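User: Here's a structure from my thesis project, written as structure tokens. My advisor, Dr. K., wants to see whether a designed sequence matches the one we expressed. Can you design one independently, without my sequence as a hint?
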């Protein structure tokens, strides 16, 4: 089971700054008290963002509509209402027809929960039958699903923004295995990720890569599903990513969030989504020094909560 660093980080920060910390609902709610003022953290969401900004960020199609309204380049998302019969999800005929139309237009779609996270229940669909299969596989009930065109992605980037300042930006690379000249891709995947890795490319599972040969085994850039983070070393690229991320965050009036941007193989940079809950667990796992980076980010967020109260 992967470690959740968040409780430890928040406790350390509160202790170092003489902030009283009360933990409720088995850690779902944290009440922070400083100099007679109280502020809260719910899950990974801090009492910095407005309710409206949080709701917009937590709904991919709403984020898209505002980004489009502000002429910020972004990935289109369409929302569809989920219906249920005998606990099985289905979409109405108009929704299915709209998805069919987009399949004809884009050839391949990504279908996912409107308010999902960490790549759970996210599928690539190239035929309408894929949609029906996806609906049967959903791990839990959702109110809405959304669709977006599938892009051939060169890289994905994430920026953590706080009060109009980029605190951290990094690149995400797809999960891969490295050949040893003896084992198949499937065997190497089981050795590296375990035998339940969900992103294996079936067409390559029996291939035996040469020594040192890298084979990409997934298409999702979620750190929780095997992707890895690394620094953005090109200063021009970093400036471009951070500028677009801040524009996106500003457009929905969110103060503390992570912004994901894709770079397509054709050279376009598009905002994929904005996350109101800043999660850094897997980022910490990727490198020992990332713990201190994560702690600095959460510290600045916590102190900002109390600073905003004094300013108002």
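Assistant: Designed independently from the structure alone:
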């Amino acid at each position: 089971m992967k470690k959740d660093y968040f409780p430890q980080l928040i406790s350390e920060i509160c202790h170092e700054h003489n902030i009283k910390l009360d933990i409720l609902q088995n850690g779902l709610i944290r009440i922070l008290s400083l100099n007679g003022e109280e502020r809260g953290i719910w899950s990974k969401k801090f009492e910095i963002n407005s309710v409206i900004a949080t709701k917009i960020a937590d709904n991919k199609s709403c984020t898209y509509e505002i980004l489009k309204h502000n002429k910020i380049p972004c990935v289109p998302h369409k929302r569809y209402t989920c219906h249920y019969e005998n606990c099985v999800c289905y979409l109405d005929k108009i929704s299915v027809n709209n998805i069919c139309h987009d399949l004809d237009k884009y050839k391949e779609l990504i279908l996912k929960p409107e308010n999902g996270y960490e790549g759970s229940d996210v599928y690539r669909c190239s035929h309408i039958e894929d949609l029906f299969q996806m609906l049967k596989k959903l791990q839990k009930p959702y109110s809405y699903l959304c669709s977006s065109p599938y892009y051939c992605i060169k890289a994905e980037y994430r920026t953590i923004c706080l009060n109009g300042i980029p605190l951290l930006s990094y690149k995400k690379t797809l999960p891969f295995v490295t050949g040893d000249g003896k084992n198949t891709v499937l065997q190497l995947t089981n050795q590296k990720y375990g035998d339940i890795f969900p992103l294996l490319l079936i067409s390559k599972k029996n291939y035996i890569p040469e020594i040192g040969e890298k084979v990409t085994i997934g298409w999702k850039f979620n750190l929780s599903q095997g992707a890895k983070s690394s620094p953005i070393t090109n200063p021009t690229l970093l400036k471009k990513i951070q500028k677009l991320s801040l524009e996106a965050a500003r457009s929905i009036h969110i103060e503390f969030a992570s912004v994901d941007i894709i770079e397509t193989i054709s050279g376009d940079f598009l905002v994929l989504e904005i996350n109101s809950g800043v999660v850094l667990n897997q980022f910490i796992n990727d490198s020992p020094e990332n713990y201190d980076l994560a702690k600095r980010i959460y510290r600045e967020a916590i102190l900002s909560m109390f600073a905003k109260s004094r300013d108002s």
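When you compare it with your expressed construct, this may help: Residues 290-311 form the longest helix (22 residues).
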